[in-house]
Amino acid sequence: MSDPLLEVSNLCKVFNFAGGPRSSERQLRALDGVSFTLKRGETLGVVGESGSGKSTLARCLLRLIEPSAGSVSFDGLDLLALPGSELRRFRRRMQIVFQDATGALDPRMTVGDLIEEPLLAHGIGNAAERRRRVEALLARISLGPDVARRRPHAFSGGQRQRIGIARALAPNPEFIILDEPVSALDMSIQAQVLNLLKDLQQELALTYLFIVHDLSVAEFFCDRILVLYLGEVMETGPSSALFRGPQHPYTASLVSAIPAGHRRERRKRLVLQGEITPIGANRPEGCVFRSRCPVGRDRAVCAEIRPRLQSVANGVEVACHFPGSLSA
User: Fold this and answer.
1) CB contact burial 64-97 (16+ within 10 A = b; e otherwise)
2) Parallel, antiparallel, or unpaired for β 43-47 and 27-39?
3) How do the pLDDT tens digits run along the chain, 328 residues long?
4) Collapsing DSSP states into helix, strand and coil, what is residue 84?
5) Contacts 24+ apart (CB under 8 A), 221-225
6) Cα torsion through 234, 237, 239, 241, rounded to 10
7) CB neighbours (10 Å) of residue 262?
8) Interacting residues of 76 by C-beta distance below 8 A, sequence separation 6+
9) Shortest CA distance to 30 belongs to which of 18, 17, 20?
10) Which domains does the chain have, with CATH numbers?
11) Across the chain, how many H-helices and E-strands are there?
12) How far is Cα 285 from Cα 303, in angstroms, rounded to an integer?
């Protein structure tokens, strides 16, 4: 690994509900002080339940929505300070592959046109050069050049996701956000797409941020993991260390749900009580996970003091007053 490509510091996002006066009752805190770095050629997995802030984080990084506070540095450049015209040119370096390949591909366009569209948007190449680029990308995703004249409905889910990957690769980006790209695919097709993404990363020196629900997929695919809960980082560190000995009770509950296999001993299932509940703009004191935490639910320190990320063994950082309590 080399120098950081992406550096995120204290990123926050508060949504204002439509209608009515602006107040804390009409606001939702989706991200709260998220910080991390992502090195060139690395894959960072972002995990957590629905409502944890994973997709909001992705959209803030791409500036599809504007953060409320914080900073995002990409290759040393302040991404949040870029004006619209510069941001448009810059976006060729950052792309996204969506979960729903069917919804992400315009059914009225041919596959060739879909892959060529980013090249046209960024003014890349002439007609002949764009055609050669499309053919090369189709070959790289194991689809022949003849499919360029067909439309997305003619393909399987796995093939459509490959087309989405080719479209993201068209402008030759350095950084790609993978927003649950295999969650809708059968397991055998998942493996094929993940192996393709790994091969592309090695060949093209790509950096990935991988949003994922399935932690067994995250363990296989990711170099490091970032665990989000209600927009806050609960734990982060190398995949091997985090899955072997999770330090945060929330991480431990997620890891305990991974099916036992030939590479994993069986863990006692830790079932959390209650559901994830969004919070308003005025954050409560203490730990946001406390109401569901089997360790800190009744502890005064967890109710009164917000835990900050602290370094523990093996390169792991955890925001917990009692790290490692459920790792055995």
Assistant:
1) eeebbebebbbeeeebbebeeeeeeeebbebbbb
2) unpaired
3) 468 999 999 999 999 876 555 555 578 999 999 999 999 999 999 999 999 999 999 999 999 999 999 999 999 999 999 998 899 889 899 999 998 888 888 999 999 999 999 999 999 999 999 999 999 999 999 998 889 999 999 999 999 999 999 999 999 999 999 999 888 788 889 999 999 999 999 999 999 999 998 898 999 999 999 999 999 999 999 999 999 999 999 999 999 888 766 445 656 778 788 888 888 877 888 999 999 999 999 999 999 999 999 999 889 999 999 998 886 5
4) helix
5) 221/43, 221/45, 221/194, 221/197, 222/43, 222/44, 222/45, 223/1, 223/42, 223/43, 223/44, 224/42, 224/43, 224/44, 224/45, 225/44, 225/45, 225/46, 225/47
6) -100
7) 4
8) none
9) 17
10) 4-75+174-188+205-318 (3.40.50.300)
11) 11, 12
12) 6
Q: How far apart are CA 20 and CA 15, in angstroms?
A: 14
CA dihedral (262, 268, 269, 273) in degrees, to 10, reads: -160
Residue by residue, DSSP assigns 118-145 as HHHHTT-S-HHHHHHHHHHHHHHTT--G
Tokens of 169: 């690769």
What letter represents residue 100's amino acid?
D
Answer for the pair 167, 115: CB distance below 8 angstroms, yes or no.
Answer: yes
Do residues 43 and 28 touch, judged by C-beta distance below 8 A? Answer: no
What is the reported pLDDT for 30? 94
Spell 180-193 as b/e; 16+ CB within 10 A means b: bbbebbeeebbebb
Q: How many residues does the chain have?
A: 328
Helix (H) or strand (E) holding 210: strand 207-211
